[in-house]
User: Fold this.
Amino acid sequence: METMQLDHAKLEAFATRAIADIASSYTGVMVSLGNKLGLYKAMAGAGPLSAKEVARRAGCAERYVREWLNAQAAAGYLLYHAASGTYELTPEHAQVLADEDSVCFVPPAWNMPAAMWADEDKALEAFRSGRGVAWGEHDERMACGVAAFYRNGYRASLVPQWLPALDGVVAQLEAGITVADVGCGHGHSTLLMAKAFPQSRFFGFDTHEPSIEAARRNAREQGLEGRVHFELARASDYRNENYGLVCFFDTLHDMGDPVGAARHAADTLAPGGTVLLVEPFAHDRVEDNLSMAGHLYYGASTVICCAHAISEGGTLVLGAQAGPRRLSEVFRRAGLTHFRKAAETPFNLICEVRR
Assistant:
């Protein structure tokens, strides 16, 4: 048999890339530790600090902190000043690592790959058997990580940008309509809208009981429980309140019967009502999704999104990179033929759907 000739430069480049990805996974552990131990907050706005000073500010053991600081400096997350032996968290990096209200804040998102590793045996069995893995079967860090990952993005964009991109919806919300948030999770999107539009009533629906309990706690803490109601319900059978607005925030692609969910939304819409569909950013063709966003979403989709849709019967398993064409077809089959891309971000498609 003829020996295959290898391009050793390409081999070395790809092996280096693979090792860099392994190093990135180590970085995730360091980021999670830094967030939970308050190390980033101890450094934010403080300028260059020694390992001893960081440890004292965070209440941690110096030897561990020094090694963590070196790991973060090697990863490019911190600056190391060799002349003084100090470490610095720049203002820009503090927005990503220390400011919990920043749209760029990412440490809680590392809960998702941690949960994916914890659930590896379930994923292996699912690949071999073809069965699904429901949202509630995942490690508890999954729901918390997803909620935290999306919260700040919704906070920055939902009320000031996405809702105004829909024709006439802001005026309706200001006058007072009833809103359904389908697959509401911890309720962050529901509560953002409720706070901004006090004349409207809001219902959040989800099939995951711990998430509904978290949403109710969040509503109580924000003083909104009188106008916001969270209930356990499926996307095909939540209560009909003649909604002026039905929202799907990064959830439709997770559903086993997205056409059925779209049809129930159509059946519960008030005359002149709108569906707000927010989905992971994607193009229609695989070759156009081979990007950083595609890298992130295809991986998550493999063991989270597709797995949950299959667990619900999987009549149509969209995955997290469905793209506008397939999404519009879902709603067309449900009788909602007006489908318009109203806005987009590097990570989301925002679509307006009506009869």
